[in-house]
Specification:
four-stranded parallel β-sheet, about 10% strand, elongated, alpha/beta
């Protein structure tokens, strides 16, 4: 049997072109291609016109979809062109890599293993993996004077026009590397043992000419055949798992090395250009760059293009290279078009060097039912899977937009971030903002949720019901219920409401109750947009607030600074939520709660100050009462820390209020002005700390207001400011001219 070993890099136009040429010249009667044998039934889709690279084979464990592996293929991938050649020439082709039933079994075992304890074996394995992450071709790059192994392979292999003997040269180079860097990773050893086993099977079947297309690193291990017994010993006793495979769309962004893809490349868009335009001297490539820059408002002429191409070719000639590399073009573009500034390379890298292409797969490719349902709804709502971030604004008064919103919220509940919510202008409106962005991993996320149901609605109900059953806190359950309501799942809402009611009845944690109140208010106040009955939630809200009123004061007594800060956050959120609820009974209960906290003897000063402010805001404290309270907390009988905490609570987040509320300003200003000099100096550091949370603009305006007595927001002027009416009248004619009004008008 004659065997031709074609060692390639997984994504490279030069390797791809060399493989196609070698296959046409060798004309094998069997092709062994590196890939998962479980995916062979899917090879029939290669000839489908609807299959447009980049695409990927996705293999996963159906009982644990997180255990998965992708096999991306672009138009310029040697594997893709090998598959196309075999399909067009009707030549048998087999994937001859280690079956994934064994490979993913090892991944699953590793996932399930307890990694908390580090052993010496584990540390050695980590060291092996660290060695394996380095590009072995970096060694040749250093010898030849290149930046890294990627550039060395690009220039010496991918860009070589005369490919005579290229595969033999690659084999010789890697043989030397493997002698210098002996293989120590068990998975690679198992894979190569299986590959040799499949070569022996082909030999026994009587094939005369076999082409072996695989990663160049494996070729030396396949050329030299050890004894069959040695390989069988390596493959003995391997565990198995069930594996399913499908085709999915892929993107150039995820094909990029920067995405974390182990076999990724730095420039998918550039490689596509080289594949389709092998004879380009750079003119076409630089023209694409010029068109992109013009599209973005930059002035780029034909002369810029000509000079850029000349400079790139001259740079390559200085290194005795026949053709410019991508780095040569990047340097030339920076020099000629960017005038030495490489900022524009960011745009070029995103749009052209990496590219935003996304592939397509036929609709009839085998898929799990949930994936089909999600794809059907995306087509229904005309939401394309896009590699660019797309903003979507919905008006919930429109039936189609409301249906989209329901679809988006159900995806979010399943944890699929294909479409994510954005900040809206305000709560309670009919407007929603979303953004969509496709990643191949989203399909895997959908597959992972497929165990909960065959449709999106069914899967969402079962998955959320399962998660809700694991929640023991009313705040967390309320938060989840808020997210469920927009998904239009009334039965699930009813079930969760019953669970929330039962949970709230046995909850004794006041902090948990206060944390739940804003969510419950939001459900009651804004939930009627969805036209569901929330009377049970409303009763629950009243019951919770009654219990907060009974135990709130005790919660605020004898606590430290950290606990007081957490309680303040809860009090603040409850106060804001109840203000929006506009419910008289709830407001009455809340005011009574605030009174109890404020009057308790051992309430933390931070909370005492804050509740004093709340009572003052509701005009429940007179001006005399406020002056008396201020004098008390500024007196020498209180420690500086108590004074600091009280004023911090009283003035917390009030920078803007001090500027626009004249009564409040007069209250604070009059009190500070009445302080004795020694008392003021004692209090000054505390006031500085209190105002530390104000924004710089607020502090500046407060200082101006204190200095000049001018309300910058209302334009009012203090009586003691000198004002010259005659001088001011001189400006009036100029103002008339500025606004276009003549004196005689």
């Amino acid at each position: 049997m004659e065997i031709r070993f074609l060692g390639i890099r997984h994504h490279g136009p030069g390797s791809c072109r060399n493989v196609v040429h070698a296959l046409h010249h060798f004309r094998p009667d069997l092709i062994l291609l590196e890939g998962p044998p479980e995916a062979e039934p899917l090879l029939s889709y290669i000839a489908d016109q609807a299959m447009k690279p980049p695409v990927a084979l996705l293999a996963y464990c159906p009982d644990d979809p997180q255990i998965a592996v992708f096999y991306p293929l672009a138009e310029f991938s040697p594997e893709w062109q090998t598959l196309r050649y075999a399909t067009e020439q009707h030549i048998p082709i087999r994937f001859f890599d280690l079956p994934l039933i064994y490979a993913l079994a090892a991944d699953k075992a590793k996932k399930n293993a307890d990694e908390a304890e580090e052993t010496e074996e584990g540390e050695q394995q980590n060291a092996d993996e660290a060695i394996d992450t380095h590009d072995p071709f970096d060694h040749y790059a250093r010898i030849a004077g290149y930046e890294d192994g990627e550039q060395w392979w690009d220039v010496e292999i991918e860009s070589r026009r005369n490919a005579t003997g290229i595969f033999e040269a690659v084999q010789e180079a890697i043989t030397a590397l493997r002698e210098y860097l002996p293989e120590r990773k068990e998975r690679h050893l198992l894979r190569e043992a299986w590959m040799r086993k499949m070569i022996r099977v082909a030999e026994k079947e009587g094939h005369e000419k076999v082409a072996v297309v695989c990663g160049a690193w494996h070729v030396p291990a396949l050329v030299t055949m050890p004894k069959v017994k040695e390989d069988n010993e390596l493959l003995k006793g391997l565990s198995k798992v069930k594996v399913d495979c499908t085709w999915i769309p892929w993107t150039y962004d995820r094909l990029s090395l920067y995405s974390g893809y182990g076999a990724g490349i730095t420039s998918p868009g550039w490689y596509e250009h080289l594949w389709f335009n092998p004879a380009d001297d750079g003119t076409l490539w630089v023209s694409h760059i010029a068109a992109l820059l013009r599209k973005n408002g930059m002035d780029v002429s034909v002369a810029h293009v000509i000079e850029t191409v000349r400079l790139a070719n001259a740079t390559a000639a200085l290194r005795n290279e026949a053709h410019p590399s991508l780095s040569d073009f990047n340097d030339a573009v920076t020099t000629v078009m960017g005038f030495g500034d490489d900022t524009l390379l960011r745009l070029i890298r995103h749009e052209l060097i990496v590219g935003n292409r996304m592939g397509e797969v036929p609709d009839h490719v085998p898929k799990v039912p949930l994936v089909l349902d999600v794809e059907r709804q995306m087509k229904k709502f005309r939401i394309p899977a896009n590699t660019e971030v797309k903003k979507i604004t919905l008006d919930l008064r429109e039936p189609n937009d409301l249906a989209k919103s329901i679809f988006f919220h159900r995806l979010a509940l399943l944890g699929i971030d294909m479409i994510t919510p954005e900040e809206s202008s305000g709560k309670g409106t009919f407007k929603e903002n979303w953004s969509s962005y496709y990643k191949p991993e989203h399909i895997l996320a959908v597959i992972e949720r497929a165990i909960w149901g065959n449709t999106l609605a069914e899967a969402t109900v079962k998955y959320v019901h399962h998660r809700a059953g694991q929640i023991n806190g009313i705040a967390e359950l309320t938060e989840m219920l808020e997210k469920v309501i927009p998904a239009d799942l009334p039965d699930l809402v009813a079930t969760m409401t019953e669970q929330l009611d039962a949970l709230s009845a046995v909850t004794t944690d006041i902090m948990q109750m206060m944390k739940a109140v804003p969510g419950l208010v939001h459900i009651v106040h804004y939930g009627n947009v969805r036209k569901l009955d929330y009377s049970t939630v409303e009763k629950m809200l009243h019951a919770l607030l009654a219990r907060i009123m009974a135990g709130g004061a005790l919660l605020c007594m004898h606590v430290d600074e950290e606990a007081a800060g957490e309680i303040w956050e809860r009090l603040s959120s409850v106060d804001y939520a109840l203000a929006t609820a506009n419910d008289a009974e709830l407001t009455t209960m809340w005011i009574e709660t605030v009174r109890k906290i404020n009057s308790a003897v051992h309430t933390h000063p931070l909370l005492s100050g804050y509740t004093t402010r709340l009572l003052r805001d509701r005009e429940l404290l007179s001006a005399d009462d406020m002056q008396r309270v201020l004098r008390y907390y500024a007196s020498v009988g209180n420690t500086p820390s108590d004074m600091a905490f009280w004023f911090e609570g009283f003035l917390k987040s009030l920078g803007t209020v001090l500027l626009i509320d004249e009564d409040f300003w007069k209250l604070i200003n009059t009190w500070i002005a009445s302080l004795h000099a020694d008392d003021f100096m004692t209090l000054l550091p505390i006031l500085r700390r209190t105002c530390g949370d104000f924004t710089p603009a607020e502090r500046r305006k407060i200082g101006e207001k204190a200095q000049y007595g001018t309300d910058k927001n209302t334009g009012s002027m203090s009586a003691d400011v000198n004002f010259n009416l005659m001088e001011a009248e001189k400006v009036i004619p100029l103002i008339w001219q500025l606004i276009g009004i003549q004196d005689d008008e």
